[in-house]
Structures are given as C-alpha cells and as structure tokens.
Amino acid sequence: MGEVDPAFIQDVEHRPKLAAPQAEGIPLIDLTALTSYSPSDGSAVAASTAVERLVAEIGDACKKWGFFAVVNHGVAVEKRERIEREAREFFGQGLEEKKKVRRDEKTALGYYETEHTKNVRDWKEVFDFTVQETTLVPASHKDGEEGVIEWTNQWPEYPPGLREACEEYAQELEKLAHELMGLIARSLGLPTNRFDEFFEDQTSLVRLNHYPPCPAPHLALGVGRHKDSGALTILAQDEVGGLEVKRKSDGEWVQVKPIPNAFVINVGDVIQVWSNEAYESVEHRVTVNSEKERFSIPFFFRPPHYTMVQPLKELTDKHNPPKYRPYNWGKFYATRKASNFKKLDVENIQIRHFRI
Ligand SMILES: O=C(O)CCC(=O)C(=O)O
Ligand SMILES: [Fe+2]
Hints:
Blueprint: E1 28-30, H1 32-35, H2 44-64, E2 67-71, H3 77-91, H4 95-99, E3 110-112, E4 116-117, E5 120-121, E6 125-130, E7 135-138, E8 148-151, H5 162-187, E9 205-211, E10 223-226, E11 232-237, E12 243-246, E13 253-255, E14 263-267, H6 269-274, E15 284-286, E16 294-301, E17 308-309, E18 327-328, H7 329-340
Helix pairs in contact: 2-5, 3-5
This protein binds 2-oxoglutaric acid and fe (ii) ion (FE2).
C-alpha cells in the first residue's frame, strides 16, 4: 500500500512526533509483596509493611501518571505467550477467513478492521471477546428504552486453539484486576474489598490488537488519542513499542517502553469518577511504524451494565463535594458503542458531560 486512505490521516496537531522522549517514563512497580503475602506465615509483619509500601507506590503512580507498569504480577507467562501466539496466527490469516467472525450491528464482538477514534480511522485490526460468558448490555442507548440484550462471543474455526487461550488468559487477568482494584482502594484510604460490590457481574472485554506496518507513520495512528472509559485497563504489549501517554506534568507525549512480561496498567474514567478525581484517566495513543507490525492485548475491567457510576461517599464531603452526577454505565457504554466505530460529525459521549 503506497497511498494512505485519507480516512486514516490525523489533523496536523495530532500527528505523532516520531521521536517522542523515553526519559522519565511511567513508574515500574514490583508486585512481589502482593503475590508472596500470606497472613499465616511468620513474616506477616514484614510482609504487611511491604504491602503498605506497595499501596503508597500505586497511589503515587495513579496521582502523578494515571499509568504504571507492573512486574512479578503472578500471571503465568505460558498463558500470556499462548494467547499472543494464537493472536498472531489469527491475524496472519486472509481477510476472508477473519471476516467470518466480523462484528456487525447485531454482534458487537469478534473481528473488526475499520474502527475510528475521534472520527479518524485507526491503523489496526482487532478481535474482541467478553470475559463473562453471558454479558448483558442495554438493547438501546436511548434513555427510557429499558431492555437488555445478551452479548455472546464469536469464536473462529481457525486457529482452533484461540478460544481456549483467550478464556484461560481472561481468567488470569481477572484475578490480577481484582488485586489491583484492592490496592487502589487501599491507596484511597478505603477497605481492600471496597470495589468488589461493583464487579459481581461485569462487562469486561479483552481485545486482541494487530497494528500492521504503516507506510505513513507520521500521518496516521494505530489508535488515536483517547481515554479508556472503564475502571481499569491491563495491557500486554509486545517488544515493538508504540504506546504513548500524555504526561500530566507537562502535556508531552511520552513513550511507554516495552518491558518483557510486564503489564501496563491505567486508570479509566470510572475510577476518575469513583475517586472524585483524586485519580484521573489519562489520554494515550498508539503510533505505528513503517517496518514492524505490533501486537497488544488490553483487558478492560468494567462494571456490569446496571452500575450507577458516581463519586464514592467516603471520598466526598462538604469541602470536597461530588464532582459528577451519577450516570448509568450501561447506557454510557452503549452510547459510545453506537457512535464510536464509524465516522460521525458529532463528539462522542464523555464523562465531562456529567461533570457538576
Ligand atoms: O495497543 C496499545 O498499546 C493500547 C491500545 C489502547 O489504548 C486501547 O485499545 O484502548
Ligand atoms: Fe486505550
């Protein structure tokens, strides 16, 4: 492909600088204290001090960056390698094969190659699946239309091992997501289990991303600038690199350096609201390059559709009143979905529409 379809071209102010600084990147946090903590062993006191330190590190990272990387997270490396292998195999097939599980108006899950972010087409193809076997979402994004529909995953015939690899990976990541929410709760001065009630069901999603080499990496993006709308994102990226985060301190785009077997974590809009902006959801984007393809796998941890998202009572008082009106997560997400993936002339729904 020599010429790039104009649908992919970013406005001048959003085009990437191809040498974004790598210095002063996101914090790297070692989760050993969490995975080795066992209240019954003799070193419980030392272990709990280590967990307290970890909680403080997480709190600092959430405040300063909204992003951090974790190592020693307890997710089995074989499970990650397996899904990465299956994803490569899936995307390596011809378009005809992939289109057999293509997403359409009715089935929101599966393969898709024409996603847009803020009305510009992304240089990528994706495969989406939900974590909960039966995921319920509102049938309509319109207020007053109350029905729900069931989302079911579309699994391809090839590669035959994709489904199992995805299901196993999702289970592992769900455990890590709960652990991280526990640490985040503690860092906000809340009990470890404070967020559990919001995840008895879920609308969590895992996405396999493939960014093919792009002949115009200075004009297009793999994913345009955006914030993640859910609670927390846990990203596995390969060794190629391309993720950039808008640094809060100065608004510069900085690269998130790939670290083998680490996950990149970021706070989404829902935590921004729950925490009444103690933590903010930070803008990020993905650059592409002309030589190498790149693969990544975000796990989007999201509450069930019926959740009313609002600042937690414990984190607000008369000096720090709630900054958001409650909004229904399912309707918010359905509205996003209804407009997100095609070119539109209007802006997507945003949490700032609920800002008081
Ligand atoms: O591929 C990546 O590094 C990040 C993708 C991303 O931000 C997203 O899918 O929301
Ligand atoms: Fe994202």
